[in-house]
Amino acid sequence: MAQRFGGKFSPDSSSSAAGSKAPPIRSAPKRARGAARVNLLYLAPVPLVFTAFGQGAVGMALDLVAAAVLVSGVFMLSEGLKAEAAYDARKVARRPALPRKIIAAVMAGFGVVLAAYSPETGGIGAPIIYGAIALALHIVSFGLDPLRNKNVEGIDTFQQDRVARVIDEAEEQLERMGSAIAGAGDRGIERRVEGFQATARHMCRTVEEDPRDLTAARKFLVVYLKGAADATVKFADLYSKRRDPEAKASYLALLDDLEANFAAKTETLMISDRTSLDVEIEVLRDRLQREGVRMD
After folding, report:
1. What's the pTM?
2. 262-285: buried (b, 16+ CB within 10 Å) or exposed (e) per residue?
3. Do residues 250 and 197 make contact, with C-beta atoms less than 8 angstroms apart?
4. Residue 216: strand pairing partners
5. What's the half-sphere exposure (Cβ side, CA atoms, 13 Å) at 198?
6. Cα distance from N-terminal residue to C-terminal residue, the chain
7. How far apart are CA 134 and CA 177, in angstroms?
8. Spatial separation of the C-alpha atoms in residues 111 and 219, rounded to whole Å
9. Nearest to 20 by CA among 154, 146, 159, 191
10. Do 163 and 269 form a contact (C-beta atoms < 8 A)?
11. How far apart are the C-alpha atoms of 251 and 232, rounded to whole Å?
12. Beta bridge partners of 93
């Protein structure tokens, strides 16, 4: 779908960009690597559906099961790529609990074995070889799941789990906002929402880096984001039916207020972190001096 170009001197730029600040970080998670190839893989099992009905009962069942396994494997791969993209986007992350990409590779190999097996010949050697090749090519093309935790050394596991749950809920609300506003059909408002999403995600990353900030930021990431998502859904539904300029102005003003509050709170969290670091350094310095170690 074509999108209208927008910029400083574009029509309607004042309403969509006014008061909007440059995003402090990327405005949205990067698209999962290999997503386009995954969509093409959904077409691979289609021939099995047609060939299944030209065989006997056993051959038909094998082809249909093979098609189902391959489709399920592609879906598992898609979920694995999403989990990997979320892992890469975060500075502090735990490895996915379920190795979806590895499971998808095994399902692809097993599906090829079923598709290549012929009840008439009964030979299993060639299908196994084909399945092994499919599994290997799958891993080469899409790689393995992240198998190690990232930057979690010294972080309380219970606290990190609490942070992960809040961040996941915040991301769901942000995705809900993006999906809803896309239905409004106004590219300027979409860009404005993307700016707010960037500011909210900046707070998410700040809390991830120091889970101690969760208590101070919890209301923003849970209550305020849910309210913002609800307001976005209602506005998008109204604006898609009737281009009400007053509703648009009110919604943009709400985004301005929310973004300013999120940015200010994030800055407060970062200042608090720096203050805590300075205090720890001073305490350490005093202890070293009492032990006779001079810090010149």
Report:
1. 0.57
2. bbebbeebbeeeeeeeeeeeeeee
3. no
4. none
5. 16
6. 64
7. 39
8. 47
9. 191
10. no
11. 8
12. 150
Distance separating alpha carbons of residues 58 and 19, to the nearest angstrom: 66
CA 292, CA 9: separation in Å to the nearest integer? 65
Phi, psi of 50 (to 5 degrees): -80, -40
Q: What is the mean pLDDT of the chain?
A: 78
- Distance CA(190)–CA(171), nearest Å, equals 17
Question: Is residue 55 helix, strand or coil?
Answer: coil
CA 88 to chain centre: 9
In order of 9, 15, 27, 183, the CA distances from 192 in angstroms are 16, 9, 10, 14
Q: For residue 46, what are its two tokens?
A: 């289609």
Which amino acid is located at 282 in the chain? E
pLDDT of 67: 93
Q: Can you tell me whether residue 224 is helix, strand or coil?
A: helix
For residue 145, what are its two tokens? 């799941």
Give start and end residues of each alpha helix (H) in the chain.
13-17, 35-41, 46-52, 57-89, 100-116, 125-142, 157-182, 187-209, 214-219, 225-241, 245-290
Helix, strand, or coil (residue 93): strand
Among 116, 133, 134, smallest CA distance to 124 is for 116
Q: Which residues of the chain have pLDDT under 50?
A: 1-29, 279
CA triple 234-240-242, angle to 5 deg: 100
pLDDT tens-digit map of 117-136: 988 777 889 999 999 999 99
Tell me the torsion sign for CA atoms 140, 151, 29, 173.
Answer: positive
Name residue, tokens 């791969």: 77
